[in-house]
Amino acid sequence: MTTTTPVLSARGLVKTYGKVVGLDGVDLDLFPGEVLAIIGDNGAGKSTLIKCLTGAVEPDAGEIRLDGAPVHFRRPQDARKAGIETVYQTLAVAPALDIAANLYLGRERHRPGPLGSVLRMIDKKGMRRDAEKALTDLGIGTLQNMSQAVETLSGGQRQAVAVARAAAFGSKVIVLDEPTAALGVRESQQVLRMIDQVRSRGLPVILISHNMPHVFEVADRIHIQRLGRGAGVITPRSHTMPEAVAIMTGATTLTETPGQT
Ligand SMILES: Nc1ncnc2c1ncn2[C@@H]1O[C@H](COP(=O)(O)OP(=O)(O)OP(=O)(O)O)[C@@H](O)[C@H]1O
Ligand SMILES: [Mg+2]
C-alpha cells in the first residue's frame, strides 16, 4: 500500500461561537494536486472550516498539519506565509485600485535601488508586467489593461483577479470559498478553467461551492459537511449529484448510500 502525506490535514476541529456550534470535530485531508470540494447546506460549517485552516479563525480544539508538520495559524498572514492563499466568501478586492495593485495588495514591490529602499517607491511597472504574466499564465485573455481600476471590471473579471492573486502567490494550497456564486455561465467557466490550471501545476485546491454541476465538473473528491460535522467524502464517480445532495441534507447517509466503487 502506498501512502501519500496530505499537503494539508485537519483532525477533530472544533469551533463554537457562544452556544452556536460552527464545527463539531471535523477531519479533512487535502492531497497533492487534487481539487477537494466542500459542499453543505447554509450554516453547515464550510466557511468556518476553511477559516480554521487558513488562520482567519482559531479552532477551540483539534490539530492542523501542513506537509505533515503541526501548524498553529493565529492570523491569515501566518497561513499566507506558509503558502496557503485564500479567496474568502466576501470578496476582498480593493475596487479603486487597478488590477496590478490588487494582485500585489499587501505585497507591494518597491523599485530597485535607493528609490525603493530609501524612498519606498512602488515598482508599478514591474508589478504590471508580472501581473499580466500571471494572468496570461492562467489563461485569462480578457484582462488586457493591468492599470484598469478593478471597480470598472465585471463581477467575473473581479473574481478572476481575486483567484489569480491566490493562484499567483499560493505555493502550497489555494482555498476558494464560493468563487462562482455571483458569476454568469461564461465567467464561471473561466474560474473553473483557472482551477484546472492551478491543479495542472500540481497545486491542490479547496473549493467551497453550492453549485453541484461545478463541483462535479472540477472536483476530484467531495467533502460533505452537515450540521458542523463531516458527513463523508465522495467522488464525482462514486456518487450522483442527487445522492450528494441527499447526504448533504440528511435525507440519507453515506453508510446507506455507499456509492459505486
Ligand atoms: N462569527 C460568527 N459568530 C457567530 N456564529 C457564527 C459566526 N460564524 C459562523 N457562525 C455560525 O456557525 C455556523 C457555521 O457557519 P458557516 O459560515 O461556517 O457556514 P457555511 O457552511 O459557510 O454556510 P453558507 O453556505 O451559508 O456560507 C452557522 O450556524 C453560523 O451561524
Ligand atoms: Mg460560507
From TrEMBL:
**Which UniProt keywords are given for this protein, alphabetically ordered?**
ATP-binding, Nucleotide-binding
Record's Gene3D superfamilies?
Answer: P-loop containing nucleotide triphosphate hydrolases
Signal sequence region:
none
Q: Where is the ABC transporter domain?
A: 8-252
| MF term (GO), any | ATP binding
Q: What InterPro entries does the database record attribute to this sequence?
A: AAA+_ATPase, ABC_carbohydrate_import_ATPase, ABC_transporter-like_ATP-bd, ABC_transporter-like_CS, P-loop_NTPase
One of the Pfam families matching this protein, by short name: ABC_tran
Coiled coil ranges (UniProt) are none
Q: What is this protein called?
A: Sugar ABC transporter ATP-binding protein
This chain's source organism reads Actinoplanes couchii
Highest lineage ranks of the organism?
Answer: Bacteria, Bacillati, Actinomycetota, Actinomycetes, Micromonosporales
